[in-house]
Amino acid sequence: NAGVTQTPKFRILKIGQSMTLQCTQDMNHNYMYWYRQDPGMGLKLIYYSVGAGITDKGEVPNGYNVSRSTTEDFPLRLELAAPSQTSVYFCASSYRGLTYEQYFGPGTRLTVT
Amino acid sequence: AQSVTQLDSQVPVFEEAPVELRCNYSSSVSVYLFWYVQYPNQGLQLLLKYLSGSTLVESINGFEAEFNKSQTSFHLRKPSVHISDTAEYFCAVSDRPLLGGSEKLVFGKGTKLTVNP
Question: Considering only CB atoms, which chain B residues are within 8 Å of A90?
């Protein structure tokens, strides 16, 4: 199993541009999550999904959108990138809910200038 | 809403010394508690978790954490650390979904453990 894969690894965006961060898992997990990690701030939940077709907002959803059309994929869309979105983004998945371990991808480092 | 406080942002120790990384959470009726570890330039990995039962939980690499309900704490300990334990450690908490909580983890800000030779 590849586990959770994320692309790209690094990206530099100009203010106002948009992009999609890709996340794929091959473990047949129902739950998927997007977090952002800022230095000294821990992880903040952006969006999560409990199954295909079902998504919900986390703590910091503004400026982001998600979709979940398949069990495997959970892309994160940034519209109109802003410097405040400079961060490291992690995708994670788990079999079911919180009693199950979350498996994290390697992260995408995004810089908006 | 839950919140998590990790009291130390950085903890330097010498190899083979004991270490304690502190974690406190806001009071709640019933919670799930987790410690995750992040090695440099990697994603997070689960170290250990408390869901119910024995208040002392252990990991396969010698770490342990004790759930203390009265103190709302879940401190992480290891009696003798190795160079390879150098990493950032995150405490996380969630209300139990079946008791009205959500499927969300709240993470602390992290503690960077540096083990020196």
Answer: 43-44
In this structure, what is the dihedral angle of CA atoms A11, A5, B108, B76, given to the nearest 10 degrees? -140
3-class SS of residue B99: helix
Q: Hey, CA dihedral for B66, B40, A50, B25, is it positive or negative?
A: positive
Q: Over the range A10-21, which residues count as b (16 or more CB within 10 Å of their CB) and which as e? A: ebebeeeeebeb
Give pLDDT, residue A4: 96
Are A31 and A97 contacting, i.e. CB atoms less than 8 angstroms apart? yes
Question: Cβ–Cβ of B43/A97 closer than 8 Å?
Answer: no
pLDDT tens, position by position, B48-104: 999 888 899 999 889 999 999 999 999 999 999 999 999 999 999 987 665 444 567
Q: Vertex B1, ends A69 and B58: CA angle to 5°?
A: 85
State how far the Cα of A91 lies from the Cα of B117, in Å rounded to an integer: 34
Q: What is the mean pLDDT of residues B5-30?
A: 92
- Across A11-30, average pLDDT: 96
- In angstroms, rounded to a whole number, what is the distance separating the alpha carbons of residues A31 and A98? 9
Residue with the two structure tokens 């091959």: A26
A107 touches chain B (CB under 8 A): yes
DSSP A102: P
If DSSP states are collapsed to H, E and C, what string results for A34-86? EEEECCCCCEEEEEEEEECCEEEECCCCCCEEECCCCCCECCEEECCCCHHHC
